[in-house]
Amino acid sequence: KARDYINIQLKEFQVKRTAGLGTMYGPTDQQLQNAKGDKVKEQRIVEETLLPKLQQYLKEIDDGSSKECPKKQALCSALSTVIQRFFVTRSNPNSPVDKVHHFVSREKSFKSRLMAKNRKQDILGHNLRLQPYFEVTRCNHCQNILWGVSPQGYHCSNCELNIHRLCAKDLKEECPGPAQLKNAEGSKIGKFIDKLSTRNHHQGGKRAFSELE
């Protein structure tokens, strides 16, 4: 589905570009052609088009700190990866490029180092640890899918709770304690997860649908 969605977006972009609306996204085709192979002109395009867009996304994420925005985080990582891999020759801690996780970088960015300090949290008895998710998993707090740049959320090693990083700040239920998954049905942990799911179910449908759009 993701590939089909991207193909549709590419077709829409090509139609707008053919219609002469390509400047909606940045430089004209002629400007791009003239800049090809010219490092000075390429750098100017990066500074005038790509960096401002990255700064805009970062500002929107900061302004919306009360609500997680994995889509913008993924866009920031994709954009910073392109800039860093092809146009930036040296690292700069003050640059927005180095404040975002890069998809193919082996070096830890500023944000990665900051996140490393917050890999573990203890909230209301929950032993929360950041972890990557490799299959569809919903947040037990808001019912939305845990997705985006890895690690996507926290996992409680005691009660098997899965939750967005920002949703963890709103967690109000105490951890019922360790339990085996195979014995979870009808147990304290099972009732705890059911309580969370039932309480937030009326919000989950709309939010999950909006995330997939």
TrEMBL record:
SUPFAM superfamilies: Cysteine-rich domain, Regulator of G-protein signaling, RGS. GO terms for molecular function: G protein-coupled receptor binding; guanyl-nucleotide exchange factor activity; kinase activity; metal ion binding. GO terms for cellular component: cytoplasm. Residues 125-175 form the Phorbol-ester/DAG-type domain. It comes from the Eukaryota. Keywords: Kinase, Metal-binding, Transferase, Zinc. Pfam families: C1_1. One of its GO terms (biological process) is G protein-coupled receptor signaling pathway. PANTHER family: RHO GUANINE NUCLEOTIDE EXCHANGE FACTOR 2, ISOFORM D. This is Protein kinase C-like 1B. It comes from Culex pipiens.
